[in-house]
Specification:
Elements lengths: L1 H7 L26 H16 L4 E2 L10 E7 L5 E7 L5 E3 L2 E2 L1 H10 L1 H5 L6 H20 L10 E5 L8 H5 L3 E6 L2 H8 L4 E4 L2 H6 L4 E7 L8 H8 L3 E12 L17 E2 L2 H10 L2 E7 L7 E8 L19
Parallel strand pairs: 6-7, 6-9, 7-8, 9-10
Antiparallel strand pairs: 1-5, 2-3, 3-4, 4-11, 10-13, 12-13
């Protein structure tokens, strides 16, 4: 059983701070899913119980392992131990699945679980483009359009709905994702979408004025290392748009915790993580269409000593 796996890792299964609702795997799902989703949930639970999905211990980003258990299941009643660091307050999954287990999960089960029973790809794309436009306006408020064409990259772009508003404004827009069905959907609309994630974006030598991470940072296994690596694809004085679910704004906690999320942020811990990775906040806000997110525009603290040949074409942030 999963408790045995915890014990092997030297982890005890404490009673969750949030109470019985966050330990009971037999209660109703907090978020609807379809028949495919229920099969996928059962498979993931079985893989955790039989050891196919190996677990690992992980320290907080501050280095501490002094935790308090918050919840033992996620919104789909999948075993998922969320703990709060007693030193800095950041929430994380510990123990969590290994990188190999997450690869299998995202490849074979993630989309089945997270898509709603009435999911319509075209309708969903149109809805998300509206939200993408709100995100783009938030960014444009603090970025000056350069004299020459600007560029934007998104890691974990789905079908590219966040890129569409920039493309319509004449920006070069490139996205990376690993969901082939979404990539096909975005490509059919003329978007430049590529299979892969952050490591794939970093090897090509391309650089961008803006990088978008929308509901992605909380999935990273090592967010500080990944944020530092992301600087490789940013021009000097380039900007990073970050959006994550905010625990402070979660009106229904039973819907908040997700097994796909390895970290859970509030505005303060998000900003601390960005500072640790060498970024500074430009603006932190909630978008008008939702109060459930922490949305940040940031830039790197470390600019290159030598002027980049593209510097004149780079948008800059208002002081």
């Amino acid at each position: 059983m999963l408790e045995a796996s915890y014990s092997k890792l030297g982890s005890t299964v404490d009673a969750p701070l949030l109470g019985e609702r966050f330990v009971n795997r037999n209660s109703a799902l907090a978020v609807a899913t379809g028949d495919r989703g229920r099969v996928a949930i059962a498979t993931v639970c079985a893989n955790l119980a039989n050891g196919k999905y190996q677990l690992e211990r992980v320290s907080c980003l501050c280095g501490s392992r002094d935790n308090r258990c918050i919840a033992q299941v996620d919104r789909y009643r999948i075993p998922h131990c969320t703990v709060m660091c007693k030193r800095c307050g950041l929430l994380r999954t510990d123990p969590r699945m290994t990188a190999a287990a997450y690869v299998d999960f995202y490849t074979n089960h993630y989309r089945a679980i997270y898509e709603r029973p009435d999911h319509d790809p075209d309708r969903y794309f149109a809805q998300q483009v509206i939200r993408g436009e709100s995100r783009a306006r938030f960014v444009m408020h603090d970025i000056v359009q350069p004299a020459t064409s600007a560029s934007v990259a998104e890691i974990g772009c789905g079908a590219g709905w966040n890129l569409e508003p920039y493309r319509k404004r004449g920006w070069k827009a490139v996205g990376w994702d690993v969901d082939d069905s979404y990539l096909r959907l975005g490509k059919s609309r003329g978007l430049d979408l590529r299979h892969g994630l952050l490591p794939d974006a970093c090897v090509g030598g391309e650089r961008f004025h803006l990088v978008v991470l929308s509901h992605v940072l909380e999935h990273f296994l090592d967010p500080i290392a990944d944020l530092r690596a992301l600087k490789q694809i940013l021009f000097p004085r380039g900007a990073l748009f970050i959006e994550v679910p905010s625990l402070f704004a979660a009106s229904q906690l039973t819907r908040y915790f997700q097994n796909a999320h390895t970290w859970s942020f509030v505005p303060q811990t998000l900003e601390a993580t960005m500072r640790a990775a060498g970024f500074r906040r430009v603006e932190l806000a909630s978008l008008s269409w939702t109060l459930k997110l922490a949305t940040m525009l940031a830039r790197s603290n470390h600019e290159q000593a030598n002027k980049d040949p593209h510097q004149a074409a780079t948008p800059h942030l208002h002081p």
